[in-house]
Amino acid sequence: MRQSKSMYWKLSAYFFFFFFTWSASYSLFSIWLGQEISLNGTETGIIFTVNAIFALCMQPLYGYISDKIGLKKHILFLISGLLLFVGPFYIFIYGPLLQYNVFLGAIVGGLYLGVAFLAGIGAIESYVEKVSRKYDFEYGKSRMWGSLGWAAATFFAGQLFNINPNINFWIASVSAVVLFIIMMTIKVEMTETEMERAESVNLKQVGMLFADKHFWFFIFYVLGVTCIYNVYDQQFPIYFSSTFSTEALGNQVYGYLNSFQVFLEAGMMFLAPFIVNKIGAKKGLILAGFLMAFRIMGSGLVVGPYGISAMKLIHALELPIMLISVFKYLAANFDTRLSSILYLVGYQFTSQVGASIFSPIAGMMYDSRGFASTYVFMGLFVFAFTVISIFTLKRDPKKLEPKAKPNIETA
After folding, report:
1. Which of 59, 81, 167, 171 is the 20 to 30 A CA-CA neighbour of 339?
2. What is the structure's pLDDT at 61?
3. How far apart are CA 225 and CA 65, in angstroms?
4. 233 CA to centre of own chain
């Protein structure tokens, strides 16, 4: 019990500082590209597409290695080490390269951000989910601290950006130092059985996974639903800031809004396991899909910063339910030895494939049709895929009822 609590707090702290580092350097990424680097909507869409391509190249590799090494923390060590250089990378390499040549900067930035953050988060989440099953604590309650870390950074990000964007990047590097120290204190013991189970994973088993129609139906849901919220979020700060009298005021308010949203998200991350356990993983995925469709469509229909802010805050309800439902759906319906591959390929990889396809399309639509019309179209798209998934996603397996003891009557 004591060891379980210790592991929970260490991994929760790791989540907190990983997301703090990520948020400080990335939460205003699209604003940084637009206002500091002076890229238009199409060029920004290209940046996100390249980031997605590098992330999706790493995700299958991360997934296979994670399942093969089990609970060893080699991947955490790699990611934590890369994050130590996040501030200098943005300031001295990424920004200047983008100004010199957008495509060259996009490739270099995509390699770093894809490995360290965009694919790294999936590897970290799948690792902690495995450890949570071993040490018997709810993954969602640990992941909640990641949301708090993101919120803590975004609360000041808008103000600091208006002073100097580089301040956020330096803060991210300081946070990464703390993250690295925490990572060094994490020690997960593996039994011989667990090592043998991990080592038994091979490419043939991975190939059999892709022969399962239910895995493809899950990918269909991810491609049509979950990847769209990433595309929506990419340039939303630009749209939000444009509704204010000045960009600086919009940046500052967006920082507060994003922080408040993620604080709400953290609270929902604590409650989401209870909700999903109550309604089931499939219904959790469907509920999250409908919430997302309403949020995205509503963002294009409401007018003014107050209405748009209200739509944005629905994200705090939707994301925790979706994330917990994804893990529980995969654990209930597929081989848990392949849990990292299932999550990183079935969920993260597919999301990035979708983002690489839809990001440039969304960017062109923002430039030609405007944000509001694009959001309505995206919301309708998500709604349609969610309705179809009601019929294609696998029902939750029934829990076996305990056998009743025989009623022995004495004569």
Report:
1. 81
2. 92
3. 27
4. 12
